[in-house]
Each structure stands twice: as structure tokens, then as C-alpha cells.
Backbone:
């Protein structure tokens, strides 16, 4: 049975939740292991046939550890079947939720030389009650500027789970064929 590694870079846990959903879809055809990008420093990627990398955005940027992981492993990633997905609140907008139109995915792809086989963009989640004072007010300001939800008492989940499901099935079909 093929082995798949799912590496995630998450700020508030929503990207991990998406990774777990993808794991549930693909684990019928592959042995799946999920690990945080911060835990990969001494991790052997060589034993995996497929690597899926998922990353969230905060204040317009990926975490530096994501770039470190890709730079350290880009030679090995080039020898594997790979997928990358990006999770961000701006993808809640129809004109920013595709591979071609999402500014954060395009910014990432311009910064790295790694070229994943499959790409996806998913809208994320705004969870005001869980944020600290600074994040709550900064994210609220960003949402106000971008005409998003600003009620600090609520959680707003924008993720299209059917799109996540389709991405998982695409991984099965294109990266892990029988």
C-alpha cells in the first residue's frame, strides 16, 4: 500500500481540520500520516510516495516555517507525487477562490521553485471568540475593509466542504491510482 504524508501549517486549527477530512477520503487507498510543518525538522520524507501540504494565511502571509520546509525538501518533493492547498478568508469571495485568482496561492508559487502536481484554494474560517484581543480587532478591521463579517461574537466558516471532498478525490485519482 502506498504511503501518503499530509503536512499542515495552521494558525488556529482549521487547516488541520481540512487535512483530517482529506485523510478520511484517501485513507482507503493509502496509509496516511499527518504532521505539523513545525514537527518535520528531523522527519524522513523519503519513505512516502505522496506528500500533501496544506497552509493557512494570517495577515496576508504564510508562516516562515512553511517556506523553510519547502526550501529544505524541494529536491525530494520533486521526486514525489505532491499536492498543495491554501486556506484563507479572502477565498470566500468568488473572484478570489480559484487557483488562478487567489493572491496568496500565486504569491506562494512565485516564491518557491517547487511545482506541486495538484493545487487547490479553500476559504477558511473566522472565529472571533477564539482570538486574542489584538487578532480579534485586526481581523475585524480587515473584514470591515474587505466587506466581510465583523460580529465579534460569532464564528464564520466559509469552507466549501464539497470542494475539499473533490480535492481529496482528485488526489486519489491523479496521485494515488490503483
Residues:
Amino acid at each position: 500500500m502506498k504511503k501518503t504524508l499530509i503536512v499542515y501549517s495552521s494558525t488556529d486549527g482549521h487547516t488541520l481540520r481540512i487535512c483530517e477530512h482529506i485523510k478520511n477520503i484517501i485513507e482507503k487507498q493509502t496509509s496516511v500520516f499527518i504532521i505539523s510543518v513545525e514537527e518535520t525538522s528531523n522527519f524522513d520524507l523519503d519513505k512516502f510516495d505522496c506528500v500533501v501540504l496544506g497552509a493557512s494565511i494570517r495577515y496576508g502571509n504564510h508562516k516562515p516555517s512553511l517556506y523553510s520546509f519547502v526550501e529544505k525538501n524541494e529536491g525530494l518533493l520533486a521526486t514525489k507525487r505532491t499536492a498543495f492547498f491554501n486556506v484563507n478568508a479572502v477565498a470566500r469571495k468568488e473572484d478570489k477562490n480559484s487557483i488562478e485568482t487567489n493572491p496568496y496561492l500565486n504569491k506562494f508559487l512565485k516564491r518557491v521553485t517547487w511545482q506541486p502536481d495538484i493545487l487547490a484554494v479553500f476559504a477558511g474560517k473566522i472565529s472571533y471568540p477564539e482570538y486574542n484581543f489584538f487578532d480579534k480587532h485586526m481581523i475585524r478591521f480587515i473584514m470591515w475593509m474587505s466587506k466581510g463579517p465583523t460580529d465579534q461574537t460569532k464564528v464564520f466558516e466559509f469552507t466549501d466542504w464539497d470542494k475539499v471532498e473533490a480535492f481529496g478525490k482528485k488526489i486519489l485519482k491523479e496521485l494515488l491510482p490503483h
